[in-house]
Amino acid sequence: MMLAPRKRVRYSLFVAAGFAVQCLMSGTAAYGQDYQPRDFVPLPAGTNLALVYYLGSTSDTLVDGNGDDVADSNLDTNVSLLRYVKYFDLAGMRVDVNVLQPFGGLNNMRIAGTDIDTKHFSSGDLTLVGTIWPLNDAKNGRYFGIATYLTLPTGNYSATKPSLGSNRWSVAVQPGFLFNVAPKWSVDVVGGVTIYGDNNDGPGGVQVEKDASYTALGWVNYNASDTTMLSAGATASWGGAETVGSIRGADVESTTVRVAWSQMLNPTTQFLMEVGHDVDAQNTFKRDTTLTLRLAKFF
Q1: Which stretch is the leader sequence (predicted)?
Q2: How many domains does the chain have?
Q3: Nearest-CA neighbor of 141 among 190, 180, 115?
Q4: Torsion of Cα atoms, 291 then 192 then 37 then 254, to 10°
Q5: Of 153, 202, 249, 279, which residue is the least packed, with the fewest Cβ within 10 Å?
Q6: To the nearest 10°, the Cα dihedral for 272, 35, 170, 214?
Q7: Is residue 144 a contact partner of residue 177, using CB atoms and an 8 Å limit?
Q8: Residues 277 and 257: beta-carbon distance below 8 Å
Q9: What are the pLDDT digits (tens) for 130-164?
Q10: Alpha helical stretches, state H, 49-179
């Protein structure tokens, strides 16, 4: 595909924008694949869970594939997520099914001094989740679960504006192990791998391929009381290089430190607040601040 010089510059900026946004949104903080403290503790069979999330981030630093800062770049994200979870028993194991629907927007996107037009409000891709617990030992405080995420290309997608929709299928597998280390202390250890299908409608009509991406995260939790928990953790993600036509991007790397506070407001309602900061990033926006707010209702 031959482009005139001015169009080539605009095309290259859009490719950079696409790399940056999709890398940012497909990391472990993307939608429901993120993991909050003690999420791998299953609820009793027959329990329903409705959740509402707000996921926000701010960044004034874009780091390229060589690890260099791209001057005069920024991006804000504002995403909400609706989630429903149902717990039941199957073949002697605790199981859940999830449905997740994100929506929101990208704001104030700028790369190397050039403003990038984005979709300020759109729906993201619908995700279906199933989790099984081969180990569900409430007596000793030990749990091992395996969650599988199937993301459908249902979100609003544009080949000319970065948006929440990815226009591709993806499958993620996320095993998690949680164990008590003292009467008031517990540890979460979670990993994950995501495999992506192709986006056949990239900028200029080209095909966009994406390599597998990987995540590893952990939380240390302190139960201050029967209703209050404080947590500190870190997340690392890598992989996920995109190839747009003949243009190949670098792998994406990020490391985030996080703290969280969760509070039972009443016997059936929980509030969680989490704040994070990227301490390292490559080929994506390095986020100054991330904020997660979650309200969960059990019924």
Answers
A1: 1-32
A2: 1
A3: 180
A4: -40
A5: 279
A6: 140
A7: yes
A8: yes
A9: 999 999 999 999 999 999 999 999 999 988 888 88
A10: none
